[in-house]
Amino acid sequence: DPNELKKIVSHAKEYGYVFPSSEIYDGLSATYDYGQYGAELKQNIRQYWWKAMVQMNENIVGIDASIFMHPTTWKASGHVDAFNDPMIDNKDSKKRYRADVLIEEHVAKIDAKINKEIEKAAGKFGDSFDEAQFRATNPRVLQNQEKIDAINARFKEDIEKENFEDLKLLIEELEISDPVSGSKNWTEVRQFNLMFSTELGSLADGASKIYLRPETAQGIFVNYLNVQKTGRMKLPFGIAQTGKAFRNEIIARQFIFRMREFEQMEMQFFIKPGTELEWYEIWKNKRMNWHKSLGLGEENYRFHDHLNLAHYANAACDIEFNFPMGFKELEGIHSRTDFDLKAHEEYSGKKLQYFDNEMEQSYVPYVVETSVGLDRLFLAILATAYTEETLEDGSERTVLKLPVQLAPVKAAVLPLINKDGLPEKAREIMDDLKFSVNVQYDGKDAIGRRYRRQDAIGTPFCITVDHQTLEDGTVTIRERDSMEQRRVAASEVSSIIEKAVDL
Ligand code: ATP
């Protein structure tokens, strides 16, 4: 359901999860900022992954390599060539790229028009303005949206059929001019590199061109011997890392699913040559089970085995997730052979061999990689959690049914009213809880509204302090998903929450 994603995007913005980046300057395309709850959720996901990979596996350790690497790294890895060539050598790719760019620009123009209409209306109606309602009913917005949908539909069909002739006509029909030369000439195509580059050092000193890493993996490969030696690691062992990666994606869309700056959580598992397919199967299954343990629904996952393998792999698959846009890649698992380490040996002139005590022989290990996008996982979790419910009394609520371990705020402490010593008591409970979990104090508005607000944020527990609390030391604890409330001793609250959170 395409509307599903729109709802999630606007909920994420309204409740401090994800904001368009540089919004006061009308945003920067396909870049997003994580807000106060988004940053917490992201952190919790990262920690959950780190715990499963590093803490729970004796033979896996974590590192944090830098984003900038020696430029030769990207020659060795094949990125400098592989990311360049298709654009230069293949005529159809050139056309496809050109079509992608032109269409994206055109859609962005229509998008901007829609946003202007919305801004104007919001100015007019002020607080009572409901963007969703406006989108759904305003003829000008609808007309523009229809145009975008039509472009997207035709664009998708044409790309799938590789029908570039048709695309050309479409572009002409839309009267979009060439963004580079201003003409409608298709023959000369700008060279395009998916890696972002910048200069190291000042220009006067003869600056050298360096790249922002397009994957975190290479930081692990170049450090593998450092870690192996200093950690006295024996094969098989793994090195894990989370961090930012940058790709100048031709089409970056669908919210945080495909961005130009994103975060990866990768693990490279170093093994004896010849055992790679065995380990590939093991990691395939481990990773799938890990995803399923999040409780987003087993039916929402599937494997997609790659038949066309990348230059570095001898087996590869994706774990796909059922996003609001359909099944799409969430994680990649690759048997990368000794491609990367061998290439780094060749380009650096340094030996990257491991001495196997049992075999009494040195060799370059093989590698199985698991690589998941943190932002994509965030989207999978947020989209699955987002629920609109009609309650028994006919009222409606929007609730984020986030896995309890991952929820940004674990509990909210609410004084029923703001007098009679209830706020003080509530603060006392909060001060007690904040050492172990992230808690929030909320004393504004009627209690029902406060519950709704916490539902929208995804807070699993609300602790309400009322007059009875002062008499017998009990509070009510309200559970987010069932909305059930029960009275418990205030002193029990922390252990109830910690148990649910799995601490
Ligand atoms: P895709 O086919 O979707 O472009 P990929 O196969 O290029 O992805 P990998 O190079 O295998 O991706 O990277 C591993 C993971 O990093 C992906 O499974 C995905 O979750 C994440 N990822 C890759 N590119 C992006 C991006 N532009 N924005 C957000 N996450 C990304």
TrEMBL record:
Keywords: Aminoacyl-tRNA synthetase, ATP-binding, Cytoplasm, Ligase, Nucleotide-binding, Protein biosynthesis. Residues 174-415 form the Aminoacyl-transfer RNA synthetases class-II family profile domain. SUPFAM superfamilies: Class II aaRS ABD-related (SSF52954), Class II aaRS and biotin synthetases (SSF55681). The keyword Aminoacyl-tRNA synthetase applies. GO terms for molecular function: glycine-tRNA ligase activity. It is found in: Cytoplasm. It is an enzyme of class 6 (ligase). Its main location: cytoplasm. ATP binds at residues 247-249, 257-262, 329-330, 373-376. Its EC number is 6.1.1.14. The keyword Ion transport does not apply. Substrate binds at residues 98, 215, 262-266, 369-373. It catalyses: tRNA(Gly) + glycine + ATP = glycyl-tRNA(Gly) + AMP + diphosphate. Homodimer. Belongs to the class-II aminoacyl-tRNA synthetase family. Catalyzes the attachment of glycine to tRNA(Gly). This is Glycine--tRNA ligase. It comes from Reichenbachiella agarivorans. The lineage of its organism: Bacteria, Pseudomonadati, Bacteroidota, Cytophagia, Cytophagales.
